Amino acid sequence: MKQSNVNDILVNNSNKEMSDMQTKNQVEDPIIQESLLTCIDLANTDLHQSALLLKKACLDSGFFYVINHGISKDVMDNAFEQSKKFFALPLEEKMKVLKNEKHRGYTPLYDQIPDPENQVQGDHKEGYYIGSEVPRDDPQWDRPFYGPNPWPNPDVLPGWRETMEKYHQEALRVCKAIAKLLALSLDLDADYFDSPEMLGKPISTLRLLHYEGKSDPSKGIYGTGAHSDYGMITLLATDGVMGLQICKDRNAKVQKWEYVPSIEGAIVVNIGDMMERWSNGIFRSTLHRVILNGQTRYSIPFFVEPNHDCIIECLPTCQSDNNLPKYPPIKCSAYLTQRYEESHLKFSSYKKQT
Ligand code: OGA
Ligand code: NI
What we know:
One of its GO terms (molecular function) is metal ion binding. With 354 residues, the protein is an alpha+beta fold.
């Protein structure tokens, strides 16, 4: 894994762009520093100590690192290797596994536009969504976000499916360990989230991403536009090339963005909007984006959302007479469907474009 030089990127955000930036809807500070995030050791047997650390991180930004997560270097390296092989295929081959109505499969360049007010075109990235495999003989297979995955032809990419299934399984295990700490940090039983009703049949999605090009915020060009994640927890593994930025205060008059550096062996974790809703806005689902410096970049986010029919409503420990629930209860799959539709091209419009 190579670590990029921050200075390469900082040069691209020099003062000369400041005047252009003012033309955007959102004004931002041109000086971008590195964020110092909390690091949680998942091998620490003192869960209460880890939960305290986690609570601090979630009140501050909802972004942190985990170490000793148990995903071996081999499993991680294989996932990146196989991801690179997929994206290196001719477009015609990738289009054979184009994203379907269940939000699984290949998403071409510009498919997603999370911040249309500040983006002139979609994200400069291509991707591949892999959901939890729910076979056709499962009574729930036809629910939104459940079902079988499309897979690239095994003659073209031998071992690809197995590699991704292995990573998927390991990432889910890590998310369940984090879910225990989250529960403790919210004064709930450790198994509150890691229960059959909540994470028994989660909507968990592995996404492979491949970025190319150079971002130019002054012109509305981004690797990934500013957004917060929709779900409960996201694990983010990257190839070490810098690019991820967070903005802790989305309402600031002048937005301050900070780089999140990659740390060898650590995984970046952030909590998403569902967790913010559950915690009545106490825990932060922070705005983030990807700024490219011209280097090719690969990343693997893994999004965990609870069961399809789980209701996301204010947790008992996050409300009182003086602090009433701020968000109405909502069913997990309904919320996700709405968020995906807002930010992605419609499935039917691919055919017209290509
Ligand atoms: C995302 C995301 C960041 C990255 O996919 O939601 O924020 O570094 N990705 O690719
Ligand atoms: Ni994100």
